[in-house]
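Dissemination and training. As part of the outreach component of the grant, students in the summer workshop were shown how a complex can be specified as a set of sequence lines and then modelled as a single object. The example used during the hands-on session is reproduced here so that future cohorts can follow it. Participants entered these lines:
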Amino acid sequence: MADKTYPWKIAWITGASGAICGEIAQRLAKAGVKVAATARPSEKLDELAASSPSITAFPADVLDVEALKACAAKVEAELGPIDLALLGAGMYVPFDIRNIDTEGFRQTMALNVDGVLNGIAAELPAMLERGEGHLAIMGSLFGYAGWPGNGSYGASKAAVINLAESLKLELRGTGIDITLINPGFVDTPLNASYDPKKKLFVMSKERCARKILEKLPKRPYEIAFPPQVEIFLKTVRNLPRAASFPVVRWFIKATGA
Ligand SMILES: NC(=O)c1ccc[n+]([C@@H]2O[C@H](COP(=O)([O-])OP(=O)(O)OC[C@H]3O[C@@H](n4cnc5c(N)ncnc54)[C@H](OP(=O)(O)O)[C@@H]3O)[C@@H](O)[C@H]2O)c1
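and obtained this result:
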């Protein structure tokens, strides 16, 4: 039974077998929200579904738009109208200018950008027809500024930020809200290959999920944290380019980031 902590009855979550979205799925389920959990078929996804009667696994590959459309339709047929779609499947690969991983770049763009777009294409038409719904998409604060080693991930998240801005403008008056979720570093398997000394202000997946769920019910355009990283990267974005590169170089030298 929903305990009214959250305004949604049915949440569809992609990337649900992952660290952040898995934690969100469990917190929503605990509060009585029915969660449709999507990721590729795996034991992890099955374990998540087994952890609560409120979580059902709807396995699908977010890169396959037709499969994802069928998945969203199945969720609606079996559970009811999706009122929150949280699109969270994502990946990171390192970017080394001396040995550019072109395939890794393409995979990252495909999962982080096309994966989000496919989720929107799968669910937005039904939301538009009903005149209500909430789309939430996982970006990253590192989409706001270029960063050494981050050429693939940063480019994909910059695309997500721009896509969210376009949707925000177009969804006005439709009854559908969009929330762009931009965390800084979270301690998850996604960034295991990132040099730990270079990760600043790292938070746990539990803290990340709590912060997202504190704000998401109010349907803001953006949820971004931690503030130190948000302010720094947005300031860098807004500085004249002649100033932004020296500031980033100074910051990296001063902090070891
Ligand atoms: N961790 C961070 O520091 C951080 C910071 C800011 C933003 N974010 C963003 O938050 C989101 C979640 O990150 P996380 O750290 O929790 O990642 P994670 O633990 O690595 O989880 C990634 C999720 O994506 C799913 N996935 C990958 N390929 C897929 C595919 N083709 N089809 C369906 N699902 C697929 C994975 O499931 P399967 O592989 O089992 O299919 C898994 O559920 C990502 O968008 C990430 O960019 C993360």
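The helical segments are 19-30, 43-50, 65-78, 102-130, 151-171, 205-215, 227-238, 241-255. Students were then asked to discuss how this feature might be tested experimentally.
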